[in-house]
Amino acid sequence: MIVRIMGEGQVRVAESHLPGLNRLDDELLAEIEGGDHEGFRRTLGALLDAVRSAGEPLPDDALQPSELILPAAGATLEEVKAMLKDDGLIPG
Asked: Are 14 and 54 in contact (CB under 8 A)?
């Protein structure tokens, strides 16, 4: 799966990492819905770190379609809320 982190680039993440990423996404969704800004910031950082560590960066000149787009580390709770789908940022 190709994941784009806004402002950083793309990484290729194996499907086997999706369950762990979905757990963080579920936690992030709950924090957004509860207005927990501190928890949101912590969990967004953990989600992005997990994608970076699990993924293999694609070269800057590679233009692959992204299957998943994640917000930048500095995104606000409100900005991420606007990006959400019914099941969070990560489908499944």
From this structure: yes
Q: Tell me the pLDDT tens digit for each residue of 26-66.
A: 999 999 999 999 999 999 999 999 999 999 999 988 878 99
Give residue 74's pLDDT.
96
Range 28-66 burial, b when 16+ CB lie within 10 A, else e? bbebbeeebeebbbebbeebbebbeebbeebeeeeeeeb
Query: Which value, in Å, is the radius of gyration of the alpha carbons in the chain?
Result: 13
Split at pLDDT 50, 70, 90, the class of 76 is very high
| Closest residue by Cα to residue 5 from 61, 70, 52 | 70
The model scores a pTM over 0.70: yes
Angle at 78 between CA 32 and CA 19, to 5 degrees: 45
